[in-house]
Amino acid sequence: MPGVAQIFGQIVLYALFFVPLAYITHSPTHQYLPDDMAVLKIAIRHAGKIIGECTPLTGAEYDKLAANMKRPELCPRERSPLKLTLLLDGEALYRDTIPASGLHRDGVSSMYQRFVLPAGPHHLQLFMNDDASAEGNTWELDQNIELLPTQVMVAQFREGFVLQ
């Protein structure tokens, strides 16, 4: 049966552990954003169009190929880079060309960017070109948005731009 000194010692040790833990948990205040600011995040993961056309192989070219490599056409693998532009209230916030990933530039293009903006109404424009042979933009988003204080809005691309 534990004595009074042992129980008192356990109480003191528990208090030495839990009092600093309770202080650290509740005392420091952290403000993620100022009260009049909001966050706009752009997250895109998209594969651009394949650059080039498939070309049929001639009989001699076809015969040169190994048995496991024989195919009627030779198709390129490289994908177009994404040309992305973000305009907010007519000012360019972001403009970049995102190359395709992969050893042969045949993977998806990925980008993530975070912008801290003043809360309130804004005019958002997102333009993207995922086809190197096309002039201009192949995808567009032109929308008026209302950013609430401390709100986080995410613009994604899923067969078109989506705001959440």
Please, could you describe this protein's structure?
This protein has 2 helices and 10 strands; from the N terminus they run αββαββββββββ. The protein has 164 residues and is α+β, with helices and mostly antiparallel strands. The protein has 2 domains: 30 residues; 101 residues, Immunoglobulin-like (Sandwich). The strands form 3 sheets. Strands 6-1-9-10 form a 4-stranded mixed sheet, with no helix packed on it. It has a 4-stranded antiparallel sheet with strand order 5-4-7-8, with no helix packed on it. Strands 2-3 form a two-stranded antiparallel ribbon. The longest helix is centred in the first third of the chain and has 23 residues. The radius of gyration is 28 Å and the shape is flat. The mean pLDDT is 91.
Could you describe the largest sheet, including whether it forms a barrel? 4 strands, mixed
Number of helices: 2
* CATH C-level of the largest domain: Mainly Beta
Helix content: 10-25%
Q: Cα distance, first to last residue? A: 61 Å
Taken as a percent bin, the fraction of beta residues is 35-45%
Query: Over the alpha carbons, how many angstroms does the gyration radius reach?
Result: 28 Å
Low-confidence stretches: none
Query: Into how many domains do the coordinates divide?
Result: 2
The average pLDDT value, as a whole number, equals 91
Shape: flat
Content-based structural category: alpha+beta
Write the H/E string, N to C: HEEHEEEEEEEE
The second-level CATH architecture of the largest domain is: Sandwich
- Total strand segments: 10
Instruction: State the CATH topology of the largest domain.
Output: Immunoglobulin-like
Strand order across the largest sheet: 6-1-9-10
